[in-house]
Specification:
single chain, alpha/beta, Rossmann fold, 2 domains, 5-stranded parallel beta sheet, 4-stranded parallel beta sheet, 9 strands, binds phosphoric acid mono(formamide)ester
């Protein structure tokens, strides 16, 4: 596989970065978020060119530890690491010695003992990546922990907004749906507020915790009222797997009040940008015609996720280009 000329004049080798882990956007300053976005900007071309690799993670080993299902995040981290010439391991919990009683931390420590530079961790428990960061020497990336944070999803959402709108400052962004169980909502809120956006969270009262207001967001339970005010709307998935029963009367009722369809879109700004982190429940949070329509950047988000993850991997443990 040919190595791309490392184009040092465009590569973020001089970008300041001191952290070993990426655990959440709550921890990062505005400057650090901008460094990641700018690094991803310089990598977007490499991320989209098949058959070209950069050597910045040559000799490094990245392991995916996913204790929950994933399509986008897992494959995107794997591809991003390979595009930077890292070795990539995929750990599958169901066929591991966890089933013999080995603990989470012992499992991670044994994998690290094989010479790992970065662990990419998804877990149903909030704080699981932070626990590993406390016990391991290698870098840890949070790929989604319970209902807490999903920082690379937040970053790729913000990157997509900046790419389409040219700015974050001054935009009004609606986060619609299951706020209570959404790690994507929390990472978006922390990142967007730090970059100067106004954030409105909107959903049924049972899916919007009152404490969310303390983060500095506006709360609404009326999607039709906020539609004309938003520059961007991010349609969050109902996290059925994290819910107790009975948080709203029926899926049909939810879709009628909080789903995005063509008639609701008619009340939006003409240049409304529509995002969804995926996976989407078509016909529930968003109708197929809207998900695949001109306002939607859903697949562009997935494409951008590769550049964001290349940037994060590079900043946490990459080598500057050799000149
Ligand atoms: N958006 C997201 O995290 O998707 P996956 O669960 O497929 O990784």
């Amino acid at each position: 596989m040919p190595l791309e000329a490392d184009a040092p004049e465009r590569f973020p080798e001089h970008f300041p970065w001191t952290r070993r882990h990426l655990l959440g956007l709550e921890d990062l300053g505005k400057g650090e978020i901008l460094v990641i976005l700018d690094a991803a900007e310089t990598l977007i071309e490499s991320s989209e060119r098949r058959g070209k690799k950069r050597s910045n993670l040559s000799g490094k080993v990245v392991v995916n530890l996913f204790f929950e299902p994933s399509t986008r995040t897992r494959t995107s981290f794997g591809l991003a690491a390979r595009r930077l010439c890292a070795d990539v391991l995929d750990f599958t919990p169901s066929s591991s010695s966890l089933s013999k009683g080995e603990t989470f931390i012992d499992t991670a420590k044994n994998i690290e003992a094989m010479g790992i530079d970065l662990m990419v961790v998804r877990h149903a428990s909030s704080g699981a990546p932070h626990l590993l960061a406390d016990h391991l020497q290698c870098g840890v990336i949070n790929a989604g922990d319970g209902a807490h944070e999903h920082p690379t999803q937040g970053l790729l959402d913000i990157f997509t907004i900046r790419q389409r709108k040219g700015r974050i400052q001054g935009l009004t962004v609606g986060l619609v749906g299951d706020i209570a169980h959404s790690r994507v909502a929390r990472s978006n809120i922390h990142g967007l507020l730090k970059l100067g956006a106004k954030v409105i969270v909107c959903g049924p009262p049972t899916l919007v915790p009152r404490a969310i207001m303390e983060l500095g967001v506006e709360v609404s339970h009326n999607l039709d009222e906020i539609m004309p005010r938003c520059d961007v709307i991010n349609m969050l998935r109902i996290q059925f797997e994290r819910q107790r029963n009975g948080l709203f009367p029926s899926i049909q009722e939810y879709a009628r009040l909080f789903g995005m369809d063509a008639s609701r879109l008619a009340n939006a700004k003409s240049d409304l940008l529509l995002l969804a982190p995926g996976p989407i429940n078509r016909g529930v949070e968003i109708t197929p015609e809207v998900a695949d329509g001109p306002h939607s950047a859903i697949l562009q988000q997935v494409t951008n996720g590769l550049a964001i993850r290349m940037a994060v991997l590079y900043l946490l443990c990459g080598q500057p280009p050799q000149v």
